[in-house]
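Re: duplicated header lines in exported C-alpha cells

Our pipeline writes sequence and C-alpha cells for each protein into one text file. With two proteins the header for the second block appears twice in some exports. Here is an export where it did not happen, for reference. First protein block:
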Amino acid sequence: MDDIEKAAEKKGEKRGERKGTLTTLFSLVNDGLLKLEEAAKRANLSEQAFCNEMKKAGFRSGPRV
C-alpha cells in the first residue's frame, strides 16, 4: 500500500470514528440520557450545528417525552 492509499484509509477511518461518536451522542440526547448542551460540547459543535446534524442523521432534536 502506498502513502496515498494509507492516507485515504486513515481519513476514512477518522470519518467512521467521527460518525460513530456523533451517532452515540445523538442517541443519548434522543433518549434523554445526555443534555443537548453537553453533547454539542463533546462533539465540538454549536448547539444549532449539533441539532442540524442530528436531524440529518434521522434523529429528533430532543428527548422523547
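Second protein block, exported in the same file:
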Amino acid sequence: MNIALIRELNADHAVLMRAVDAIHTAGGYSNDVRDLLIKVRSALVRHLDKEEQHFYPVMREAAEKNMDLNNLLTVMGLEMEQIANKALGLIEGWLEKDGGDAFTDEFDSFRTILASRISREEKTLYSKYLKLAGS
C-alpha cells in the first residue's frame, strides 16, 4: 500500500475543486469557463484512471477477505460510475452547446454532487486504505 498515493489523490481532488469553484465564481458561461471545463474534464479522467490503476486493485484484493469492505467498494464503485458518466456527459454537453440555457443551475448541481462524492471518498475509502496500510 502506498500512502503517497492517497496524498496524490487528495491533491487531485483539490485541483478539481479549485477549478470547479472558479467556474462557480464566474457565474455563467464564458471562454474562460470553457477552458476551465476542459481542465476539469482532463483532471477528472486522469484522476479516475489513477484510481482504477493504483487504488482500486489494492482495495479489491483486501475486500476479498473483508465483506464490509467488499460491500462498501461495491456501493461506492456503482455510485462513482454513475457520477463519472453523468459528469463527463454534462461537461461534453456544455462544451458542445457553449453552456446552454440551464448551465448555471446544472453546474451548481454538478458542483454539489462532486464535492459530496469527494468528501465521502476521502473520509470513507481513503481512510480505509490508510488503515489497511497501517496494519
